[in-house]
Amino acid sequence: MADQISDAILDTFLSHDEGARVACETMVTTGLALVAGEGKSNASFSIPDVVRETLSDIGYTDPAFGIDGRTCSVLTSLDKQSQDIGMGVDTGGAGDQGMMFGYATDETESLMPLPLVLAHRLTQGLADLRRSGEIPWLRPDGKSQVSVAYEDAQPTKVSAVVVSAQHAPEVDLTTIHKTLTERLIVPTLAGELFDPAEARIHINPTGRFVTGGPQGDVGLTGRKVIVDTYGGKGRHGGGAFSGKDATKVDRSAAYAARWAAKHVVAVGAARRCEIQIAYAIGVAEPVSLWVDTRGTGSVADDRIAEALQEVFDFRPGAIIRDLGLRNPIYGPTATYGHFGRPSETKTRFGREVKLFPWEETTRLDDLRTALELG
Q1: pTM across the whole model
Q2: Mind listing the pLDDT tens digit for each residue in 79-132?
Q3: Pure H helices in the chain
Q4: Phi/psi at 49 (nearest 5 deg)?
């Protein structure tokens, strides 16, 4: 929820001012949303209105859920971006320092780890069931986790499924378990190495999940970075994504690293690929680029790293240009992960924009040539 609010604010800034620099953090708790951060923009709009609209869109429209977007308190504290940071960004340098990772694997069509793909499908399905009104006792908070057994680094079966779904107080656990097994878990995981007779299924394991959302657990931007990325299969460096414009390499370089890693696997140079890019604040050129194919490469890792630097420009300004990161495209990334969904063109804020452009593999021929693959 906090990530969605931060990215909604970022998108609204970018819809008014493509050059906006934003670092927006959100905290949500019972009856309160607090927005704080720094920025540089001439855009003018009501941040509380964006917060309330986002909360309402998620489904928090009843005080009984712990927060009501229509009536909750909204506090804001946004300051100007530090001039010390601005000096480096103005010249095309990175807006922060750190190490960012990208990962890809051939175990799914999206080149993402299977456990995370299945977990996102479950949470998406849970939200769809709630929004459709088919299960009236469902409330907005929900989580999932999928455990997958591997042999020789390849998935062989789904061994455990965990779903936690916030619910109205009057519904009993037996009804919850039966309904979510039959209408969510089985149809969602069918054909995905899942046998409901063998897999352990845990639904609301404590036996009750009435108090949820910010009432049950304070929310902060960036607390779910592993779910945002690769579910722990690939590493995460740098910082969180949501609420940050693309001059912050925490976000843009992580997108570029995924873009490049996906090309390596898609071109057949490796079955798995992890890329690390490191930056110094205010400096455009990365200080290092490292590739690890975990022993699956048909080409040496060092050679892949050289080829990637021939095909991709990892300077922050070039990443922003090549991926169109000054557009208001970030709201959809704040749910169901930042990676693995197909790129698509949509109308947002009255303009046509490309969502998830880092998922496109438009430079396969260039990388194939650079690697001298047949």
Answers
A1: 0.95
A2: 887 776 766 677 788 877 899 999 999 999 999 999 999 999 999 999 999 999
A3: 2-16, 47-58, 83-90, 114-132, 173-180, 186-189, 213-216, 225-228, 249-266, 301-311, 316-323, 364-371
A4: -65, -40
* Residue type at 42 in one-letter notation: N
CA separation for the pair 302, 242 (Å, rounded): 32
pLDDT digits (tens, 9 = 90+) for 214-231: 999 999 999 999 999 999
C-alpha 120/C-alpha 336 separation (Å) is: 5
Are the CB atoms for 327 and 354 separated by under 8 Å?
yes
Mind listing the pLDDT tens digit for each residue in 304-360? Answer: 999 999 999 999 999 999 999 999 999 999 999 999 999 999 999 999 999 999 999
Residue whose entry in the numeric block shows the structure tokens 């712990």: 66
Q: Which residue type sits at 19?
A: G
Structural domains of the chain in order of their starting residue, each with its CATH number: 2-81 (3.30.300.10), 98-106+230-371 (3.30.300.10), 114-214 (3.30.300.10)
Beta-bridged to residue 39, according to DSSP, are 22, 80
pLDDT at 83: 76
73-80: strand order across its sheet: 73-80, 32-40, 21-29, 219-220
C-alpha separations of 371 from 296, 300, 302, 315 in Å: 16, 10, 11, 21
Q: What are 102's strand-pairing partners?
A: 275
| Helix, strand, coil % in the chain, rounded to nearest 5 | 35, 25, 40
Q: Measure Cα distances from 63 to 5, 47, 304 in Å.
A: 18, 21, 54
* 367 in Cβ contact with 267 (< 8 Å): yes
Question: Who contacts 109 (Cβ-Cβ below 8 Å, separation ≥6)?
Answer: none
Three-class SS state of 205: coil
